[in-house]
Each structure stands twice: as C-alpha cells, then as structure tokens.
Design goal:
With 184 residues, the protein is mostly helical. 59% of the residues lie in helices and 0% in strands. It has helices at 11-14, 54-57, 63-79, 83-98, 108-132, 136-162, 164-174, 178-182.
C-alpha cells in the first residue's frame, strides 16, 4: 500500500510480485517511489507499540525545531477553528524562526535524510508516547504530521529524480509550486 495516497498494489491483478518491480517503479496514482509502499496491515491486529524510556524521549530542541513544532501546532489549531491559539503558536514560530542560525548543510540529500530519520524514529517515539498518555490531540498531530512528512519526502524524491521538469509540471497542473500543494 502506498503510504502517500493509499493506492494498493495487487500482485494477483497486476501479475508481478511487488518485489520484482524495478527500483525506479513509481505509484501510478501519485508518483511516489517504490520505497513509499509497505505491506498492507490487517486492521484487526494492530502492530505493537514500542515503549520508549524517559531518557530517549527527553532532548533539547533547537530554535529551528521549536519553530517547526509551533508552526505545525498553529496549522493544527487553524484546522480546529481555534484561531486565537493558532495566532499565539504562529507568534512563537516566528520568534524561533528569527532565532534559528543558518543551516550548514542545506542540501537536498541532507533534507531527505532528516525527513527519513523523522519517519523512522521521531514519529514512532512521539506516537507511542501520545498513545501511552492517551493524548488524542497529540495522536492526531502524529497521524497528520507523518502523512504530510511522507508527502514531502515523496515530492523531494520526485524533484531529485526529475529536477526542474517536476517543478514545471507541478506549476502546470496546479498553478503553484509543490510546497503550496501540500497546504491546499
């Protein structure tokens, strides 16, 4: 199943086992890389949730990370029609953005590595903590944040593969740059 759009690759229907597809195969619906696919899980048997220790969860966040967290919380509040709280989180995000030092390695590869680290380690840890605390708000943030992060990873991988042609195609299809498509 595609982790971006939910497309299900049916090996029986397609006639080719998924693992036999070429490495450059992409989702026919959204264009996500083959790596965005994972085995479809049976909804009746949830996967076990790792229980992190307090030491693993506790870390100091940089100004840039705090800016991103506050910005995402602002967007979440907007979606919940909590405009006053959204404005306060955005004010905090702007403050932390101004305090963020310049990035030493702002390459596309470094950005994709950081996103993959978030998907592999950070979201599972945050999600398991939210579930252990029965914090539904944080659980919702995890679900939507992870989805947006997977979409971003897919867009960046497509950009790495297709370059300027990808940007031109996105502008032609949607009338805007790919980053704007994420928030439509």
């Amino acid at each position: 199943m595609c982790g971006i759009c939910g497309y299900v690759y049916d090996e029986t229907k397609e006639g080719t086992p998924f693992e036999d597809l070429p490495a450059d195969w992409v989702c026919p619906l959204c264009g996500a890389d083959k790596s965005a696919f994972s085995p479809e899980q049976n909804q009746s048997t949830p996967s076990p949730i790792p229980q992190p220790t307090l030491n693993e969860d506790m870390q100091q966040l940089s100004a840039g990370q705090l800016s991103a967290v506050c910005s995402n919380l602002a967007r979440g509040c907007e979606k919940q029609y909590q405009h006053e709280q959204a404005a306060l989180f955005q004010e905090l995000a702007d403050f932390f953005t101004a305090a963020t030092p310049a990035v030493e390695d702002g390459s596309l590869d470094k950005l994709i590595d950081l996103i993959q680290h978030n998907l592999r380690e950070d979201y599972p840890a945050l999600s398991s903590t939210a579930q252990a605390e029965a914090d539904r708000g944080s659980q919702r943030i995890c679900v939507w944040g992870e989805k947006v992060t997977r979409i971003l990873e897919s867009l960046l991988n497509r950009y790495r593969r297709e370059g300027e042609a990808f940007l031109n195609d996105m502008i032609r299809k949607y009338g805007c740059a790919p980053s704007a498509v994420l928030f439509m």
